[in-house]
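Sharing a chain and its predicted structure for anyone who wants a worked example. Both blocks are below, sequence first, tokens second.
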Amino acid sequence: MDGVIRRFGGGIAALRGSAVWPRKLSPVRYFLIGGFFTPAYLGLEWLTRVHELEALGITLWNPVKALSLGLLLIEGIAFTPILFVAALLADLFIYGAAKSGPSIVVTSAVVALGYAGLAATLTWGMRFGMERTGMRNVIGLLVVVPAWTFGIASAYCGLLVLFGDLPVRKYWEAVTHLWVGDTVGIVIVLPVAMAILGSMQRLRDARLRLLLIDVSVFLAGTSIALWLIFSVEGADEYQFFYLLFLPVSWIAMRAGFLGAAVGVCLIHLLLLACISWQGYPASTFMGYQLLVLALALDGLLLGAVVDERRRSDELLREQHAEVARMTRHATAGAMGASLAHQISQPLSNVAMYLHVGRQLLADRPERPARDALEKAASQLRQAKEMLERLRDFVSRGTLRPTPTDLGAMARKLVALAEDDARSHGVTIRLDAAVTRLTTVDALQLEQALINVINNAVDAASEARRAPGCVTVRVVAMSAGMRIEIEDNGPGVPEAVARQLFEPFVTTKPGGMGLGLALARELVAAHGGTIRWEHREPQEGTRFIIELPPDPEHANGT
């Protein structure tokens, strides 16, 4: 006995750790959901008493089972008691006249436990997810649901026979009645919820004009098919039903699973209205329900195939884009290494000539000329070193990190950029409080910041509402250092927003589109990140560079 109890406890523990049992279940939330679910269950049960058999709650259209299964799939089978209470109340206040007390309790338990088992099978066995509309999910739904609902219907009707509420001779009729109503209810309604949860982004991305055309074609085809089904004299009940496959196939191919799910549900509701209006008997209604089930299988599978194809196409485009991006990076790296190699030697020669010129001026008092030559030589030496380091980086990805004051670096770069900014009518502001030393490759990081500052100056020169302004801000954080470079320019165009940091993407007529791409690589090599955002509510763009606090985050240390 102890072993049985331990195994039972282990099973409950495993259940609590599974996807169908919520890890943290707040009592307030539990009873709040139950308070909404139970009235919805009772109201829907009362509204859908279509061709009820023997007043036993066995109907040919039972969407409340889709509501029940959806609750257990989304919130977890911990809500099984809520379903039991709702089924019990429905039997007592809606169907209870034809059932005995024990029968009501036991059959309500069969419904609750049966659908809990169905939810667990879908979640554990099929890895089912309400927000996923892939082929595996759809096939799992269309195969597992009919099998489980048949088992539940068999047990339910068997108990009704056992308690004397149902004649034995009507057992299989009741099983068929209940199975058709529950299965169609789930297969028609639940996919709509799945489509809404998983496909709304695709609907938002759709063009309104094309969407209206697709919906109009679907409605026109559905209207014509229904008119032929119910208006042509001399035709049997099902002669023109196949015409409904045309609009369903159309909307499935055009709008995928979302279109198929909504389309099949709409057709079913229209069929219900027509059948109820013309007073068809239960046998005819069941025939239409089975045909609608076939229509749903066809439409949902076709919609899932269309969605799978679209996802495959999107993945293929992403892979092509990634290959192209890697190719551009390789090209940029090879070009950078070649450029550094080609320019390094001429810079060395220029530095040598400047040195000679400075020596020739050593004996003369022309101090300004000598100072200018010394500054030129210093800048050339720095450019030569930077190019050599750039060549090392693009060829081997190595850095030479040293403790650096980022505030002092920012002041230096702002001073270098002020003349160019002034010539464009742009003011550069610096906000760099006292900052701690950060271990970075100073030359590489300077190059990244120069590229971003130059872009900000170019953007601010096109400011429309105020004089151009660029702000460079250095902030010390607990999780590292943060550098912000913002401008009041026109902002980033939507056409290049997603690829702003990709090589050869630029908004400048004569630009190469390598500055921000190189800045991203250099910052990433330090273990940092660079991103951009719109300045609100003003116009402009803000670039944010965040560097890690520890030296070991930087590559090459």
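Comments welcome. The first strand starts at residue 402 and ends at 405.
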